[in-house]
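Lab channel / #folding
Pinned by the channel admin:
"Please post every new chain as: sequence first, then the C-alpha cells as a reply. Keep commentary short and put observations after the output so the thread stays searchable."

First post following the new format, from NK:
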Amino acid sequence: MRYLSGVASASTPGQNSKPAHSNPKQQQRNQPASGSRSELPAFVDWPAFPFEGDMRLKSLQDPVSAEPPRRGARQEQCTACHTPDSAYLWSNERWRLKSPPAPSGLPVVVILEPRAHLDLGDLSTMHAAELGVLTVRLERAIRSLESVAQVHVNRWGDGTAHLQQWFLARPHGFLQLRGPFMTMWDEILPPVEEHEWQMNLEYIAAWLADD
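Reply from TO:
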C-alpha cells in the first residue's frame, strides 16, 4: 500500500504529504491503533479514498513462520485448469480471457490467464512476449470503448497460483475513481446495466479475435 499510495499521489488531486522513511512495521508496533486521526495515513484525505468519518488502524499481526499455500498451488486442484473454454470470452492455444460472472461497478473487468498452469515468473520467453502483446491489445480494446477513460492493469501475487492479469476500466468522467482505490469503488458502486456489460465484453472478445 505504501508503494501504491505513491502512485496515487501523482495522479490523484488533493493535498498529499511526503511518506515517512521509517519502517512502517516498527511504527505500527510501537504505536498501536487507538483511533486517533493523526495516526491515519495521508491517503484517507485524498478525494479518491472511498470512505470518510471515524476510522482506526488495525494492529499489525506478527509474521508467520511459514506462508500458507496459494489456491490451486497443485495443478490437480487448480480451478482455472479445470474450467472449459466455453466459460471464457476468448481463447487461443496458449491464453484465455474471462470476466467475473456478473456485472460490477466498473464498465469492464476482465482477467487474462495462460492456458498452462503457470505463474508470472514461470512464463517462457514465448509466453512473456505474448503477454506483452496481449496486454497492449487488451488495453487498447478496453480504452476504445466510449464509456471508458483509462484502464488499470494489475497482477496480485497472493491468491491463486495460476497467473491472473486483471484489466479494470475507469468510467469516463469519474475522476474520483482515479488511482489504486478503484478496486474498492468497483465493489461499492451499483452494477452497470446487464446489456451494457454484455455488449462491452462482446466487443472486447471480437477485438481479440480480429487478428
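NK: Residues 1-35 have pLDDT under 50 and may be disordered.
TO: also worth noting, The first strand starts at residue 90 and ends at 91.
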